[in-house]
Amino acid sequence: MQLNSLNELENWPYILKVNLILSIFFLILTFLFVGLVIALRILKNRREAHRAKFDAKLIDFFNHFMFDDDFEKAPELGDFKFNHLRSSYDHKLAIKQVLIFDENLKGESSAALRELFYGLGLYTFLVGDLKKKAWFKKARALYAFSRLGISVPQELVLPLIKSKKAEVRQQAMLYFLNTSKENPLSFLDELDVELSLWQQVFIENSLVNFDLEVPDFARWFNHDKSSVVIFCAKMVVSFNQFQNIPLLIDALDHTDAAVREQAINSLKIMEVPDALQLMSANFPYESPSNKRAILYAIKKIGTVKDLRTLAGYIHKEEENLQIDYYKVASGFDSEIPVHKLLNLDTITQDWPDYQNYAQRLLQGA
Amino acid sequence: MKSKILVIEDNPMVVKSLEFKLKKDGYEVVVAQDGRTAMKLLGETHFDLILTDLMLPFISGNEIIEFIKTEYPLIPVIVLSTSTQEDIITEAFTLGVDDFITKPFSPNELSLRVKRTLAKV
Asked: What is the value of ipTM here, to two decimals?
């Protein structure tokens, strides 16, 4: 009977045979796929169950270690490490719990947590991660060290400031900010990539919130990276480092327009009228945004006389700048001969206020 | 007789640590992981002290404090919260809490504060 069927199959047309083979192939593929999904789900459930169980075990062990006076720490620690911390996953869960405990407890418990951290071999595990190639392992290790304020040999972390991965660089910065006792910003010396705006905000926030000793930002005013100089120019203002005003004035001649703009803004906020002479001298050669910054610096720390000297350097096609000039001039409440400066034919019609002001002055002139 | 403390907290780690520490100190500890459970437990059992977080599921800590101070004004309440904002701390004291502990907290300090608050009752 079976032989007959096979003989019949041989007599089938070629296209039907292909069809049958493909059907069987896709059916097997479907079963394999469904099987894989089920297997992954089972694996995930088992992993989560192990995680919940292990987390409970860790919490219990940590509590005994920290609060139980009758607990024999050294042997129990060795026992727990030997019997429970078997896989890399177990180590990761233990590190996570240490971080959660550290986030919620302080005082004598923090010291006990560090004892646990070393005793369970988590320090060695994370140092091993720092040496691995995978960037996420390095970032994770740095995060844990910086959160716990635990120092590792500097030669392991310093190269990570130059990492190609922004996440690793960010965590390395956090590490230095959290663990450095003498100069939390020493990593800036090593930086050979630009500091992003987010990183600048992050560092400033750390300096304000972490109760760190604020360094003298003069040290980095000659840094190769413009973003570092810009950051320092901002920080001079944030931390009232008036001794660095001469460096800000020097930065008005920096080759990078963005640095010059920050220097103008910083000098404006710190109210340094002595800087206006150099700003005015540079005005004709400045970029439009820096010209604008200078106009507003004059508004805050200059006089109408300073403003007038610049009128001739605002070209008729620089309409936005003319509007800024008008705004600054109106702030001085002085009769500025704007009709000599502004090109009424080309100025945008969207500024009726400006139109009225200019017309009024023209009529009065 | 052991004093009975109700701990209202949703963070498992904090719950376990508080439970462990307070039991070590000789108290009877009952845990509620959210406001609803806490209200139910308050209706069923008498507690000598309540230790509560402010950020809780379903019902906020402030609502629970208001409820406790209306329904059970004699039970002292200690808040254990991550918040350090002045207005939140002021609001909690305005509602009538007896003490405010900020996280991260020192378990030994918490122990002393619990002892002192219970001694006042």
From this structure: 0.88
Contact status, residue A361 vs residue A338, Cβ threshold 8 Å = yes
Topology of domain A216-301 in CATH is: Leucine-rich Repeat Variant (1.25.10)
Q: Does B10 touch chain A (CB under 8 A)?
A: no
- Pairwise CB contact (< 8 Å): A59 & B21: no
pLDDT tens for chain A, residues 1 to 365: 555 666 777 788 889 989 999 999 999 999 999 999 999 999 999 999 999 999 999 999 999 999 888 889 889 999 999 999 989 999 999 999 999 999 999 888 888 999 999 999 999 999 999 999 999 999 999 999 999 989 999 889 989 998 989 899 989 998 998 888 778 888 898 888 899 898 899 888 888 876 767 889 999 999 999 999 999 999 999 999 999 999 999 999 999 999 999 999 999 999 999 999 999 999 999 998 999 999 999 999 998 888 888 887 887 778 888 888 888 887 776 555 555 555 555 444 445 555 566 666 556 54
The residues, any chain, with a CB within 8 Å of residue A171's CB and separated by 6 or more, are A138, A139, A142, A143, A146, A160
State whether residue A70 is helix, strand or coil: coil
CATH code of B32's domain: 3.40.50.2300
Q: Which of A101, A194, A88 is nearest to A137 (CA)?
A: A88
Chain B residues touching A68 at Cβ < 8 A: 20, 24
CB contact (8 A) between residue A59 and residue B14: no
- Which of A51, A57, A61, A63 to mutate to test binding with chain B, by most B CBs within 10 Å of its CB? A63
